[in-house]
Amino acid sequence: MGGDYAVIALYIAGMIGVGWIGLRLAKTKSDYLVAGRRLGWFMYSGTMSAVVLGGASTVGGVKLGYTYGISGAWLVITIGAGILVLHAVFARRLVKLRVYTVGEMLDLRYGGRASAVSGVVMWGYTLMLTVTSTLAFASIFKVLFSIPSWAGIAIGGSIVVLYSVLGGMWSITLTDIAQFVIKTIGILFVLLPVALVSAGGFSGMAEKLDASYFEFTSIGGETILTYFLIYTFGLLIGQDIWQRVFTARTPRVATGGGVISGVYCLVYGIAGALIGTAAKVLYPDLGSAQDAFATIAERLLPTGVRGLVLAAALSALMSTSSGALIACATTTTSDLLRRVGLKSGEVLRNRVTTLVLGIVAIGIAMLVDDVVNALTIAYDILVGGLLVTIIGALFWKRGTREGAYASMVAGTVSVIAFMIIDGVAANSPIYWGLGVSLIVYVGVSLATPRTPDSILSVWTQRLHGSDNPTAAEDLSASEIRQELPQ
């Protein structure tokens, strides 16, 4: 493993080095939280792909392929579909708003303090998303060093926290580009072809596996539908994703770069499922399907190359973990801490918040044992609590502040209640959460006075503003309140 250790060590040193570069670039709040809103096509599409394809998409995607075959690709396919819809329909509008958080957008649209409620929901989502990717470090470091899960989580999580705290979104963006290149080479151009050839190609796999492993719907129609509800819709409204949209230099960059990223996600999803299917042929009696990725990398690849593929897996985990961490910190400072009188503009305060939340996420990850379930919790809370309110803000003028408040609370409570009743892995929480949220939003909005035209005019002006966002100023939370009519 000496060659593998060398590759991994170089990779980790490189990530920390990039963090120091980001430290020099992150001089303002805009630099730290949204990379100064200066990313072009390549950097934007690379960093967007990196943030959405994390531990669940890589380790979890191979796990689903090991369990269900090619049908296991649906989890990542629905993520790619969400990226495509987001950038085809919403991205141009979001870039023009010049906000930092989903909560600030809701404040602007509803003319109230909607970020107080949405911030709590988004905080829970981004924190659990950080936990998801941090948890997956255990599988990789177990193979590398034969250490306990908690130690692997501590090592991987600490690296992410270090470079995220140093340079914020600039560090994360620069590391994401490196991670995007590494995992493209490691997963698509090394592990995928080696796994397929070792398993005897498609004909060899077909001889050894049940036919259901090659049926695209064998995972179940209800599960596929649930994935679309959770992940496709979740990608439309997540703070971690919106915050990447806010980094685009122009609306055109966001749209074009995002479409490229969405297509890449579709390819990545199919690759992961095929690797998992090959692992089922080669190692049919694994104690845990979650070990499929690390096992096939350890046993099939020569030293050095194995280190590259494991570095690719680390790249996937670190990019999503760091993106979710900075999103959680942004929500905390911009939507929650300002409620108790703390300003969100100082870079130092954002760094301290990122550090504290990173430590909390590492601690929680040591207590959770399933990467896909952790991701399900995160997206169930997000979609059930916020989807209806956000879509309503963008497309239904009759939606009111009271309707938004009631919808967010009712949807979130319903999701949590049915997770307790039916279990975390059940499909029912997201169905009940969305249904209750929609009924409450429409009912309360129709029963309360319309949003004043003075508030809607400010919203419309921002939403249909210049396609050249460099001419506009960023909106802080306090500036949003000042811009709205009293």
UniProtKB/TrEMBL annotation:
Q: Which residues cross the membrane?
A: 6-26, 38-60, 72-95, 116-141, 147-168, 180-204, 224-242, 254-275, 308-331, 352-368, 374-396, 403-424, 430-448
Q: Where found, per UniProt?
A: Membrane
- Pfam families, from UniProt? SSF
| Primary localization class, coarse | membrane
Q: Which domain of life is it from?
A: Bacteria
Topology with regard to the membrane? Multi-pass membrane protein
Q: Does the keyword Cell membrane apply?
A: yes
UniProt-recorded Gene Ontology molecular function terms:
transmembrane transporter activity
> Where do the segments described as Disordered lie?
467-486
**One cellular component (GO) term of this entry:** plasma membrane
- Where are the annotated coiled coils located? none
Q: Which CDD domains match?
A: SLC5sbd_u3
GO biological process per UniProt = carboxylic acid transport
Q: Which UniProt keywords apply?
A: Cell membrane, Membrane, Transmembrane, Transmembrane helix, Transport
Similarity-based family: Belongs to the sodium:solute symporter (SSF) (TC 2.A.21) family.
> Know the name of this protein?
SSS family solute:Na+ symporter
Q: Which organism is it from?
A: Amycolatopsis echigonensis
